[in-house]
Amino acid sequence: MKKGERRKRELLQIAYGMFVSKGYENTSVDEIIEAAGIAKGTYYYYFQSKEQMLEEVIGMMLEAEAEKAEAVLRADLSVPEKIVGIIASIQPEQQERTIDEALHRPENLLMHDKIRGRLFDLIVPILSRAAEDGVREGLFDCDHIPERIRMILILSSDLFDGHNPYTPAVIDVFIDATEKILGARPGTMGFIRALVRAPQDVQ
Amino acid sequence: MKKGERRKRELLQIAYGMFVSKGYENTSVDEIIEAAGIAKGTYYYYFQSKEQMLEEVIGMMLEAEAEKAEAVLRADLSVPEKIVGIIASIQPEQQERTIDEALHRPENLLMHDKIRGRLFDLIVPILSRAAEDGVREGLFDCDHIPERIRMILILSSDLFDGHNPYTPAVIDVFIDATEKILGARPGTMGFIRALVRAPQDVQ
Amino acid sequence: MKKGERRKRELLQIAYGMFVSKGYENTSVDEIIEAAGIAKGTYYYYFQSKEQMLEEVIGMMLEAEAEKAEAVLRADLSVPEKIVGIIASIQPEQQERTIDEALHRPENLLMHDKIRGRLFDLIVPILSRAAEDGVREGLFDCDHIPERIRMILILSSDLFDGHNPYTPAVIDVFIDATEKILGARPGTMGFIRALVRAPQDVQ
Amino acid sequence: MKKGERRKRELLQIAYGMFVSKGYENTSVDEIIEAAGIAKGTYYYYFQSKEQMLEEVIGMMLEAEAEKAEAVLRADLSVPEKIVGIIASIQPEQQERTIDEALHRPENLLMHDKIRGRLFDLIVPILSRAAEDGVREGLFDCDHIPERIRMILILSSDLFDGHNPYTPAVIDVFIDATEKILGARPGTMGFIRALVRAPQDVQ
DNA sequence: GATGAATGAGTATTCATTCAT
DNA sequence: GATGAATGAATACTCATTCAT
Asked: Which of B89, B149, C152, D13 has its CA 20 to 30 A from that of A81?
């Protein structure tokens, strides 16, 4: 049992890397088993189908994301820093880039989309708790917190997902919009600017 | 030449319908030619590849979208109405629904994504012109108009694409965010609420 | 040893049910072990191969058939009744139907055929003994009894195996043929008609 | 069109030979295309599936059988000779043997069974016409002709299908049964004995 | 007696594309 | 302009069997 679990974990890791770098649809079972050094039968011993494996890969990834987010939440940071920190930590392309600089979007669409939906459902409540703290502290002033959080997630995931290079103007507007959506004083989220510098020269 | 063009147009229309209802990847060339009643060779006489055909399908669709948007722009409407009208007109799912009520997202991802990107690039300048009018009229107060417009597009396309049923809270927050992103007085975009009622009962 | 034998018996029973309802070829070893709640290794501890298991399943079934036939032979019945009783008792579909009404023939062909051959070899001598009694009693008048018995078996197994609905004409002709093959007086086997009524409405 | 049809015919012939000699299930598509010297795609250009090809193979074979039977019917023969001639002509094993002496039954079951059913449906009416002539001529005396014909077909196909060597006793009983089933005078079908001699030494 | 992880040859089917006519 | 026969690499999945523990 122990042994089988470890093996499975290993296969998920390998597949995750391949899915991210070449796309789920462009990664064949043959390629996975070759990379893993196992037989076809072994693959189907652990996974009922390629699609079910994708679900497990995503599940594994989400667990990791959730843990990271919770860690940020517990860290000694201001509420805006927590929110931004969590958002930054889930930008999928951050890790994807690490694995494969030449990431082509189209082949990743399916996985990207599946992850995005489930990730949002997972992260919205966590971020909402942080935002509620912000309201309590008088930093934010707004109702419908989960809906507002989701919007900020939508914006950030779309703007900063790596396929549109973001200009200073985009960042300014994003900061402005974030502050206003949460009812924060101008400047509250300004520190984002500093965080965003680095990856800019990619691509 | 004239005749050939018409034929091609026809094929694009047929393919468009199939791509939208079954997804690009799930539509085989065989199915297209059968639906069109032509031979395999004829297909490849008109299109270099299936992918190139997709590009042409999208191009054709975008032309139509742009025309519709320009028409709204020329119409006798207030600036906020123009902006909302254009945004509403490009919700891809609006047309897709017409063609196939049971549209499943995953198979449409590739086309959807390709369309979205190019549609935004096309529509942002048009909407920006409208927004500039709004600024001139004192309705809006903001800089970086194209960036702000793009954000509003991102939000609306994600929130209202039909796979998340939108609650009143979502609409309220969207209206609030839109007003604040454009620097409009509260209530300026409130009329959106009325427009959004109808499709709600679809799902 | 005792325990092992019982276990094996149990497995044969389970497999028999599955073979009959889904067909031998469509029943995988995986399905058998899951139904039996044992491990793969255990299966191959008891059986050298799936095919060998089939042989054992058939053997087990034949034993049961032979016992039933002998019981009918010992019963207090007229010779024609004995013969018809034994034939009726071996109609494989009779039991199969009990297990799975929706039995489709093609998947059962292999097993059906194997059983049929061995069943005939087993039952022909038994029936022949009954028929010899009939000759002795003056009911039948014929030579080559085993050959004649086999023909009657062939006819009945083909006509009444459930996939051809049998009409009254078929039954009449079968009765007539049976009587003539055995050299019996007309009417000797007429009682068959009554027996055959019931299953007719199955299909 | 002409060319495609010929090609298809050719493939059916090749497949027929393979199905008969190795069994349908044991003949892979790969083997067929290799034997035919065509590409995988070509195979699926002509046939939707392997199973559908089987249907066509059988259809082709049945056409041939029917033609042969009709020819016998038109020939200048006595009614009993016609009937026996037709029955002899359809013994599948006759041709199968020609193609592959080492015919193993189990792998042929599916095809054999499918053919048998359709062949009977096809041949029963033809033989019935001949039998009716026999009645008219006073050679036979019976009702329910199609049912009786079918029984004779069942018997002959089972007795003479090559896997049970037929003894003189079997032949005698078959002749006797046939005569009685049709209400013919003893000796009417005796000529069968002569026909049956030859193939006996096979196997 | 019993387990379950590992095997790998085998299978049918798909599909965008080519090209001689 | 148009045809349709031909291609062949690619793909996901099955399953009886083995064997170290």
From this structure: B149
Q: Does A168 touch chain B (CB under 8 A)?
A: no
**Are residues A147 and B154, on separate chains, in Cβ contact within 8 Å?**
no
Identify the CA nearest to D89 among candidates D146, D153, D132, D145: D153
CATH of residue D123's domain is 1.10.357
Quick one: A183 and A94 in the same domain? yes
Distance CA B103, CA B97 (A): 7
Rg value, chain A, Cα: 19
| Tens digits of residue pLDDT in A4-32 | 788 899 999 999 989 888 888 889 999 99
Contacts of B59 (CB under 8 A, 6+ apart): none
What domain range is A111 assigned to? 54-201
**Alpha-carbon Rg of chain D, whole angstroms?**
19
Q: Do B17 and B84 share a domain, yes or no? A: no
Strand F atom within 7 Å of A34 CB:
no
Q: Report how far residue C143's alpha carbon sits from residue D78's, in angstroms, rounded to the nearest whole number.
A: 29
Report the amino acid identity of residue D84: V
Buried-exposed string D164-178: b where 16+ CB fall within 10 A, e elsewhere: eebeeebbbbbbbbb
Average pLDDT over residues B140-145: 96
- Using CA atoms, how far apart are residues C66 and C89, in angstroms rounded to an integer? 10
> What per-residue confidence (pLDDT) applies to D27?
92
Residue D150 CB closer than 7 angstroms to strand E?
A: no
CA nearest to nucleotide F6 C1': residue: D42
**Residue B66 and residue B72: Cα distance in Å, rounded?**
10
Answer yes or no: are the C-beta atoms of B191 and B84 closer than 8 Å.
yes
Same domain, A110 and A172: yes
Structural domains counted in chain B: 2
Q: What is the pLDDT of residues B120-140, one digit of tens each?
A: 899 999 999 999 999 999 999
Residue D191, φ and ψ in degrees, nearest 5: -60, -15
Which long-range contacts (C-beta less than 8 Å, at least 24 apart) are formed by D140-147? D140/D79, D140/D182, D140/D183, D140/D184, D141/D182, D141/D183, D141/D184, D142/D181, D142/D182, D142/D183, D144/C169, D144/C172, D144/C173, D147/C167, D147/C169, D147/C170, D147/C172, D147/C173
Taking contacts as CB-CB distances below 8 angstroms, the residues of chain D near C173 are 144, 147-148, 151, 181
Closest by Cα among D48, D27, D11, D202 to D110: D27
A106 and A180 inside one domain: yes
Cβ neighbours around C197 below 10 Å, total: 10
pLDDT tens-digit map of D151-191: 999 999 888 766 667 789 999 999 999 999 999 999 999 98
Separation between Cα atoms, residue B55 and residue B53, nearest integer Å: 5
Q: Residue window 61-120, chain C: list those with CB within 8 Å of chain D.
A: 105-106, 109-110, 113-114
Instruction: List CB contacts of A81: < 8 A, sequence separation 6 or more.
Output: A191
Determine if strand E comes within 7 Å of the CB of B104.
no
